[in-house]
Amino acid sequence: MKIFAFLLILVLVSATNHQHRLNYTKQRSITAVMAEVELKIKSHAPLDAVLNILTLFRDSVNEEQVNHDQIFVVELNECQGEYDFRNAEIQNARSTLRDSNAQLNICQYSKQRTIEQQQVNQQQENTFQQHLNTILKTADSESAYFKKRSRQYEDSLNSIEEALTILQGISFGYRSFSELSKVSQRMLQTSFDIKKTPIYAPIFNAFIQLANQGESVDLSSLQQVEHLLKDLKSAIKDAYNQFTESNAQSVAQFNSSKEKVSKVLSRLQQQYERQQVKLDKLSACIGVQSAVSNSASSKQQRNQQLLEQAEALCSTFQTEYNYGTQSRRNEIQLVNQLEDMVRQRFEQVHEAKPVLYYAKLKY
User: Fold this and answer.
1) pTM exceeds 0.85 for this model
2) Residue 64 is inside which H or E element, if any?
3) Mean pLDDT score, 169-198
4) Which H, E and C letters describe 230-298, residue by residue?
């Protein structure tokens, strides 16, 4: 009775371990084995028959352990494969994230630099545009001045030419000094306009002398005045030509300055357009690299979570394997102890010779 009481305690301990293991053979039960052993003993079955029951149970446990070992090896390989895959994905995501962030920083820095350069370029363009406007405004003003002064020179020459005509008419007796007086007044005005009054002084003095002589003026005096008028006409033409040549030089200088400034403006405008194209490309680069960076970050987080889940699952596999293996070891240990007790019991019966009455197995 003590033997079977001890065995009952071992069965309870084994049952406790079975709560934490994988049950691959639900039909196997240590209590059923003990009941069958008890039945064999009661029926006076030979020792080999009893031990065969324990051997079959032990073989079943060992076979289950072998199957579990094989499954566990597959699980370990699957876990290692998952670890390798997830770690490779995480490393790939980290590399992509590092490279994309580096490229993103370059694009952001380049964009800021390009914006600053574009602002400087715009300031320079505004400055040269103002300079060009000043040149155009000055050119318009000088052009108006040239046209006005040209008309004044032409008026001066016309009045001189008219004075010569009147003077010639006076010498032939069909023009009067009053007409010459009117022309002299226009000549005086044009002298002020073209700022050449000093060179007009001799002819004005000659006109005064003619006026003082009146009708008694002689031909030599008229010829002398005519000579002065022709000299004045020649001097005014020279001054007009110098003025025209000076204006032509100013126009050429204006055209040269305008061309230079226009070229600079054109270059600045082209540079601004190139910078704008570059900004568009850099903005696109920032958008693409930001998306790549976000995708890589999400990939890294996702695979990190999957790796942790795989580690948790594989840890469960390890725990189940350890519990199952330990439970089967306990079962083997219990069967071995039971076998030893059975052998001892049969030896005692064999030595006693008399008919033995077997006590009921209690468990």
Assistant:
1) no
2) helix 47-172
3) 86
4) HHHHHHHHHHHHHHHHHHHHHHHHHHHHHHHHHHHHHHHHHHHHHHHHHHHHHHHHHHHHHHHHHHHHH
